[in-house]
Structure formats: structure tokens, C-alpha cells
Amino acid sequence: MLVQPNSSFAGLSNWYNVLKQECSRVSFIKDLDFKNISELGGLNFDSFNNEVHAHINEMNLEALAKMVETLSGLSMENSSKGLISCQDVYKQYIMNLLDTLESRRDLDFGSAESFQGFLGQLEKTYDHCRVYVRILEPLQAVEILKRHFTLVLPPNGSYMHIPDSSTWQECLILLINFWIRLADEMQEVKSSNPSLVENLTLSPECISSCFTLLIKLVMYDSLSPSQAWAAILVYLRSGLVGDCATEIFNFCRAMVFSGCGFGPISDVFSDMSSRYPTALQDLPHLYLSVLEPILQDLVSGAPETQNLYRLLSSLSNLEGNLEELKRVRLVVWKQLVIFSENLELPSQVRVYSLELMQFISGKNIKGSSSELQSNVMPWDGSAELLSSMQKTEAALNQALPDQADGSSRLTNTLVALKSSQVAVAAISPGLEISPEDLSTVETSVSCFSKLSAAVTTASQAEALLAILEGWEELFEAKNAELLPSNEATDQGNDWGDDDWNDGWETLQESEPVEKVKKECVVSAHPLHSCWLDIFRKYIALSMPENVLQLIDGSLQKPEEVIIEETEAESLTGILARTDPFLALKISLLLPYKQIRSQCLSVVEEQLKQEGIPELSSQSHHEVLLLVIYSGTLSTIISNACYGSVFSFLCYLIGKLSREFQEERITQADNRESNASSESRFISCFGQLMFPCFVSGLVKADQQILAGFLVTKFMHSNPSLSLINVAEASLRRYLDKQLESLEHLEDSFAESSDFETLKNTVSSLRGTSKEVIRSALASLSNCTNSR
Question: What is the pLDDT of residue 43?
Fold first, then answer.
């Protein structure tokens, strides 16, 4: 019976008797001040709760709980004054134990053994407190049980990685089994209190089912310990909060974000769907629900990129139900397409999303983010899957009817956006490139011409080149898609053979090499007009070495010439009037015989009028290298109208021969190799260029001159330079050079002298053995004829 102490004498007498009894009950509690519990007028509401809380421990628990129950039951004011209940006493006792356990927790868990020890303490605490949990109000009991789940979380949202070992696997099995016990306990509390169902949205039965599936995946090695632990951490920070549908979503999302593959994720979702058929839609909708908030974060500028990478990578392997995997991939792809085509998004966000799509479809655009390359896994699968994605994408937008498929349009959009970023940042803020500008060669050339017209500085020219290189990759991909696969393979095999070519001139003038089985057809680059614009821009900016370097780089694709013949004629024709040697070098890098003859004639005339020009050493080196590489030496020797050019080449050979011998003497004296760029060039001359030049003389029926050069080069006595001695020296020299080429390292291109023409040097090295063999054969034929 509730009483008010001030109501009557009888009431006061009864009240004081109760106080006396309770004071006696708790008198053993050290430092408990009963004045803070009660005063003359009744309970001390100001300090009652604090005094009780301050003395809750295992020894005092029952006495304090009984006292609180008795005194609060006699006071009519306890509810309005916020007086604690006896259940609050038990709750506080349990919370104190958990707080103490958490404070003693090794935050790094140190090792599997220390973690297992911590888990043992946690289970012991639960077993000890379980009887008190049952005393609590149902909602309080559920909150206490949830606290047991989250006690293993690292503080402040940090992430703790664990290794994939059998000991950690055992730890996780123990932990998950403990959590299944907790979930079952929650379910018992919920089932025994029908009124709780209305106030509690939590679904303990569903939680127990999720953890039961998780422990099976861990035990059967379908998930590694690190993946399972990561999933646990993600789930505990978002789960244990909602109904069945919410818990299943949170659990599957945690698996996605922890790097689990599609197989385990689909297994969990399928099992939970069979148990709770009304709670879920399907797996594609689940993935879509996980993806959409991530995409919104991209727009807001606070992206969780790792979660996005893991979501996409979870679909990378062919595992689980392949039909279901296909459906999930399609819906994710479709959502990415819709997102990337939102014109209101910042361009960097669109570029990022398009690059993601490129990576997962197995394509890689030059200059893409290294972060994507290291984090995003391409989607494996059959052509049917990729075709379905492309058809889905193409159906979303028909803005570019000329495109072969949706994948081409995606690439167009990505390249256009990246090009626009470069153009706006480096050339002019008013420049913008649209996907339509890149739909055909004609539109691309027209757009590039406008960009080129705005370029006035070297840095802008470099930006223009970066744009063109991106477009080049785009059109290469288009051409590859148009070629039948067997045709592309055949061409690759033919042109990949280093022995096919002795230079452009050799292919056209000398006898065919037996290894060449088919006639090689050379076509112009699709964007040859754009490359011509780049060349003209570099020449106008006094950067001719860039032109040579770009043409040299194009030699890696011998089936394709970088500009057409009429364009090359126009370019070299203009240069021949101001810089004949530059025009000659460009012509020697291109396969156009008539243009080369024109440039040789101009250089011949200049040499006759002015003698040997005062060019830089590098320019001299480049002329000699390109004459040898291109196979033009035989034309120069056999044509009397190029006598001055031939004399100039012999002058260069003599000069470099002397420098080569001096370099060898210097190295012998110092007993150490000089690694300078000049030294590497001299070595390249002695080991590669000179023997090829001598071989060219032999093939052009200039054996006497060749023999003379070799005897001088080898420091033979001039009095012995008779034809038979010279021929013997020549043969020995070429045999020795052929043998040394077998062990020659391709390190000459590292020289700064050859940085511009490094592919030319590599190509000459690849064909030099055939050149020397041919010269030796010519020597044999000459000997036999005598």
C-alpha cells in the first residue's frame, strides 16, 4: 500500500519503521550515508539515485535492490521524481561490469590468444549476469544483450585487421557461437513479453539466422577470417536496429563492403529469402539499394570509395548462381550509366564514374587513375554477359546512332570529358569537347583543328598532344572492334616479327627476306591530319626534336604510318627551305621514297654550296643513324648525284671512329666504364652503327672502301692494306660483330643522344644481324666470282 509520510501519525509511524528496517539491511555497506536515502519528510529525492549508484557492486547488489524496491514502493512520488527502480540497480550493476571489461580490453587484441581470453571473460560476465538480465524490464534486457554484441568493436570507428589463420578462424567461430546464444536469449525475452513486440522492432530470430549462416561460411572456408571479421565490424556498426528486412539488408551490405565474393553473398541472401519470403525483394534490388547512397556520396564530395570498389569487385568473378549474377551486374551497370550521363554532375565525377565502368568492362584508358587500377577488379565472364551490358547501355541513350554499341559511346563520353578538362585547364576556358565530336574521324579532325588554332605556347602544345594521345587510343579500340579476331591476330603475328624489315628502303629495294611470308600493307593513321597539326605546331614553336620523337614512337606500330604521303610532302617541303637536315631526318623516318629523294637532293645542294654544316653533334648522330636505319645508304652510294651526301657520311664515320678509339683508350686507362650519354652513343656507334654502315658498303659493291675503313678502324698497318688483306680483315670483323650481337644488350636508347630516336635504335638492333649476314654472303659471292 502506497503511503504519504505526512498524511497521518499512523502513516508516519509505519514509514519510520520501514526506514529503520531498510537502514538496518544496508548498514553493512561501507560509506553508505543513509541521510542521502531518506530525510524527515520522506525520501531524499535529490541524492537518492546518486547514493545508490555509488555503492552498487556484487556484495551490495541484493541489499540495495531490495531497499530500492521497498522504499520506492511506499512513495507515491517516486515516478514523478525519477526515482530509480530495483531493475535499474541490476542494470547498472551489469553495465558497470561491462564498462570494467571494456576498459581492460586490449584495443589491438594483440593476438588470437589474447582475443580469445577477452572473449572468455565476456562470456563469463554474461553467464554471471544472465539471472539479473531476466529480472530487468524487457527493453532494458534487450539493450543489455545488444551491449554484449558491440563490446568487441574497436573504439572510435577504427578498423582492426586480423590475419587469415586457423587460430583466428577458431576465435571467430567461438565469437559467433556466443552471439547466436545472445540472439536466442533476445528472442526468449521478446517471446515471453507479448507487449514488447509492439515497442521493439528488432528481430532476434533473424539476427540468429544471419550469424548461423556466417559461422557455416567461416567453418567451410567460404569466407576467410579477415573477410568474416570485416563483415562483423561493418554489420555491428549498422545492424541490430530494425526489423527482419532491415537486418538482412544490413548483413548482406556488410558482406559486400568487407570484400566477400558474390557466391557467399548470394548464398546468404537466398537462404534468408527462403526463411523470410515477405521481407525481401531480390538480390538485384539489394545491390541497387547499396549502390545508390554511395553514388550520392560521390556527388556530395564525401565518397566512400573503398565501399564502391568492394561492391564492384564482389561481382568480378563468375561464382554462385550465374543467372542471378548476370541480373545483378546488369542492374548495377544500368545505374552507373544513368549516373554517369547526368549532365548536372561535375565533370570530375562523371569522369570517375566512366573510368569505373571502363575498368569493370575490362578496358583501360591511358592516363586513368592509378587508384582505380589498384582497387577495381574487372568483371570476368562470357561475351554474352558483356554483350547484355552493352545492349542495356545502348538502350538508355541513342544520342550517337553511328556508334557500334553502348561500350563505344561510353568510351567516347569518357575521352571527351577528359579532353575537355585538359583543354579548359591548359589551353582555353571556352573549349569543350562533346562525345559527338569524337563520333567519327571527320568530326574529330574538325574539333582538333579548332583546338590547335588556340595553341600558342609550348605547354599548350603538350596539352594538345595529351588530348590527341587519348583520342588515338579511342580510335585504335574502334578499329580493333571492327577487325575480325583472326585477322587482328594474323596481322599482329606478321608485324611482331623483328626480322621482317631492314628499314623502309630495304623492304622496297633489296631482295625479299625469306622469313616474310606475306606482303605487309602499310596504312595511314586514322587521325593523320591531327598529327600533322601537332607537327606543324611544334615546328612553329621551334621544337623540332618533339616531331622526331613522335614519329620515332610511331615505329612501334609498323603497320601504320603516322601521316599520309601528301601531308609528309607538304611538311618536308616547307622545312627543306629553312632546315634541310630536319626535313631529311623526317623523310628517313617515313616510308615515302619520293619524298626522301627530294630531301636528299636539297641536302646535296646545300653541301655543295656551303660544305659541311655547323650542326650539333646530336643532329650529326641522328642523320647517320637514320640513313643506316632506313636502308638509304645503298641509294646514296649507287647514285652519283648524292656524292656530297656520301662524302658527308664518310666524314661522320671517320670522326666517330676516332672518337670510338679514344673512348676505348680512356676506358682502358681508367679501368672503369664511363656511363655518360656520350659514352653510350660512342658504344652504340662502334657496336651497331659502324658494322651496319660497313655492311651497307659491301652490299653496294664498295668492298674496297669497306675493307679500308675496317683496317683503319682496327688499326692495321697501312702498308698491309692490300685488297686481299683488307677483305680478310673485313670478313673477320663482320664475323666478330655478328657473334657479339648475340649478347648485345639494348641499352643504347638510354643515351640522351638517342632519347628522341630510341625506337629507331631498337629497330636497327633488331635488323642488324640480317644486314651483316647479307654482307657476308655478298663477300662470299665476290670471292667465288674471282
Answer: 81
Report phi then psi at 458, rounded to 5: -65, -40
Distance separating alpha carbons of residues 217 and 260, to the nearest angstrom: 11
Say if residue 131 is exposed, middle or buried (CB neighbours under 10 Å; 0-12, 13-18, 19+). Answer: exposed
236-286 pLDDT, tens per residue? 988 788 889 999 999 999 999 999 999 999 999 999 999 998 777 899 999
| Integer CA distances (angstroms), 701 to 372, 627, 773, 775, in order | 59, 18, 15, 10
Residue 392 has pLDDT above 80, yes or no: no
Backbone φ, ψ for residue 153 (5° rounding)? -70, 135
- Is the pLDDT at 396 greater than 50? The verdict is no
What are the grid coordinates assigned to 454, written together? Answer: 588556340
What does the mean pLDDT of the chain come to? 82
Q: Give yes or no for a contact between 241 and 199, defined as CB atoms under 8 angstroms apart.
A: no
Ramachandran class of 671: left when φ > 0, alpha when ψ lies in -120 to 50, beta otherwise: left
Helices (H), 192-321: 194-199, 204-219, 225-236, 244-257, 262-275, 283-300, 305-313
Which set of grid coordinates corresponds to residue 770?
Answer: 640480317
Backbone angles phi, psi at 489, to 5 degrees: -65, -45
Mean pLDDT throughout 629-655? 90
User: Judging by DSSP bridges, how do beta strands 42-43 and 38-39 pair with one another?
Assistant: antiparallel
Q: What is the DSSP string of 331-371?
A: HHHHHHHHHHT-TTS-HHHHHHHHHHHHHHTT---TT--HH
Residue 623: how many other CB atoms lie within 10 Å: 21
* Exposure letters 458-480 (e unless 16+ CB within 10 A, then b): eebbebbbbbbebbbbbbebbee
What's the rounded Cα separation, in Å, for the pair 717 and 653?
19
Q: What is the pLDDT of residue 312?
A: 95
pLDDT 10s digits, 469-484 = 989 888 877 666 554 4
Radius of gyration of the chain (CA): 42
How far, in Å, CA of 444 to CA of 531, rounded?
A: 12
